[in-house]
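Protein in question passed on here:
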Amino acid sequence: MPTSTVKYLGALRTECVHLKSGNSFITDAPVDNNGKGEAFSPTDTVATALGSCMLTVMGIKARDMGVALEGAVATIEKVMSADPRRIAQIRVDLKIPGNPSEKERKILEHTGRTCPVLLSLHPEISKDIHFHWGS
C-alpha cells in the first residue's frame, strides 16, 4: 500500500499527503535554489526526518525502560554542497531533560544513533550528533 502522495502545485511547491492519516505539508524550493523558501524544502525534510526518527526510537526505548523523554528537542542544521548539489552534512543537537543514569543515557544514545533514517542516509553525508542531558 502506498505511503504518501506528492502533488506538484507549480512555482516550485509541492503538497505531500500521508495517505493513512490525511496529514499534509507543503514544500518549497529553497531561496538558494530558485525558490521562495516559504516552507520546508525537500532536503529540509530529509534532515528534519533524522531528528524526528532519533527522538521517536529513543522515545520507544525510553518508554520501555521507564525513562521520561517528554520535552526533548532536536535542533537540526542542514549543510548543502554545491557540486553536486546535495546534503553534505546534518548537525543534530539533542537537548534532553531529566537525569537518567549513565547506562540509560548510553542505551538511549545508541538507540538514536542507529535509527532507521540515520542508517538510510548516504555514508558520504556527515552526521554531527550531540546529546545534552539535563537540559
In short: The mean pLDDT is 97. Strands lie at 4-10, 13-18, 24-28, 73-82, 85-96, 126-133. Helices lie at 42-65, 102-113, 116-120. The radius of gyration is 17 Å.
